[in-house]
Amino acid sequence: MDFINKKRMPVELAHHKVEEVTYLVDQLKVRGLMMTPHKEVKRIVIYLRGGKGQVGRVRAGRLLQFADINTLVIGPYYRGNNGSEGKDEFYGNDLHDVTEAIRLLNRSYPNAFIHMVGFSRGGLQGLLTFQDLPITSYIIWGGVSNIHLMYEERVDLRGMLRRMIGHPRKHSERYEKRYAINQISATSPPILIVHGGQDHQVGIHQAYYLANQLEQRGAVFRTYYQMKEGHVPKPFALKHTLHTVFQWMSDVEQGHIKDDYDED
């Protein structure tokens, strides 16, 4: 099965066609934004958005950061968001919206490298899905790695989490299903952890926690910490972050991963 609908968007780019795509997931019509290069697709980047609803929505400018002349970039909206059918379950069946998009693209471009980028809420979205997919690497950027840490840290989001998931004590099994670390092993695809030391939306302790857990499991990973940056790096720092992300993707594709990604 391919995308069931493609709607050309009013964004004019020299090297890419921008479309809103629709595909079936669990009998629901789910949408996403996709940038397809005019030239051969050699790399695919799956951007996993943060937030919920209009907060953190997928935008062309964000996807464009990961695009080059041979890279296709797609950002699923997730069910229940921006015209997609269904209800956002916050790491529930909405995970299928990610996995199905990747399987669709892998069938269309079987020789392309596939990298996932999980930003903020999308961090855990990626950790819960990347294990059994044809993924080259995963980049978690300012991302949630532990739902319990998120509940403790974001007092302002506790009401939303209780509505969508339940209370951590009363509905512990629902939180356990969203505990991604148990799925990660030494054979998992390599992970790049990107985080800002002044991030007040997703504290850097989420990154420290993930790095510690990955080290214990013998997983391949690198870290890139910008200790003076917040949730979204300032323009000059953002340039360095994107350079690091692109270098990481190239290194993984070429079969060698450098050790020089840490920044004080």
Automatic annotation (TrEMBL):
It comes from the Bacteria. Signal peptide: none annotated. Gene3D superfamilies: alpha/beta hydrolase. InterPro entries: AB_hydrolase_fold (IPR029058), Peptidase_S9_cat (IPR001375). It holds the Pfam family Peptidase_S9. Residues 92-251 form the Peptidase S9 prolyl oligopeptidase catalytic domain. This is Prolyl oligopeptidase family serine peptidase.
